[in-house]
Amino acid sequence: MPLIQSSSRAPVTINSEACIADKGCTVCVDVCPLDLLVIDMANGTAVMKYDECWYCLPCELDCPTDAVSVEIPYLLK
Ligand code: SF4
Ligand code: SF4
Predict the structure, then answer these.
(1) Is residue 40 assigned to a domain?
(2) Cross-strand pairs, 50
(3) CA distance 47 to 36
(4) Ligand 2: centre distance to CA 59 (Å)
(5) Mean pLDDT across the stretch 34-62?
(6) Distance 25 CA to ligand 2 centre (A)
(7) N or C, which end of the chain is more exposed by having fewer CB within 10 Å?
């Protein structure tokens, strides 16, 4: 799977202020069926690593702090 080239082009973004990965949360990583998200230990936040997405939304819906935003393409809405 291709790596994300630029975080600004990622369909899933993480609010680093709200993310509590530094406290041990890995919910979004665990629920993604494609394993697209990872924890960036250096920054203590989840990030999208791979340039792919099914727009299935558990990462956004299950995040305990509403830190995840999935940008669904207009043609899929
Ligand atoms: S589920 Fe939310 S708080 Fe937990 S690691 Fe993912 S983005 Fe951070
Ligand atoms: S929307 Fe689905 S496929 Fe995309 S990152 Fe979230 S859980 Fe993974």
Answers:
(1) yes
(2) 3
(3) 9
(4) 6
(5) 96
(6) 17
(7) C
- The ligand with the least distance to the CA atom of 1 is 2
In a domain, 77, yes or no: no
Burial class (CB in 10 A: 0-12, 13-18, 19+), 3: exposed
Give the pLDDT band (50/70/90) at residue 46: very high
In this model, does residue 31 exceed pLDDT 90? Answer: yes
Question: In this structure, what token pair is assigned to residue 56?
Answer: 């299935």
Choosing from 31, 57, 63 the residue with most ligand 1 atoms within 8 A of its CB, the one to mutate for a pocket test is 63
Mutate to test the pocket of ligand 2, among 29, 47, 54, 60 (most ligand atoms within 8 A of CB): 54
**Count of the separate structural domains present in the chain:** 1
Please give the structure tokens belonging to residue 53: 């997405």
- Tell me, yes or no, whether 2 lies in a domain: no
Is the pTM of the predicted complex or chain greater than 0.90? yes
Ligand 1 centre distance from Cα of residue 17 (Å) = 11
Q: Range of 29's domain?
A: 7-70
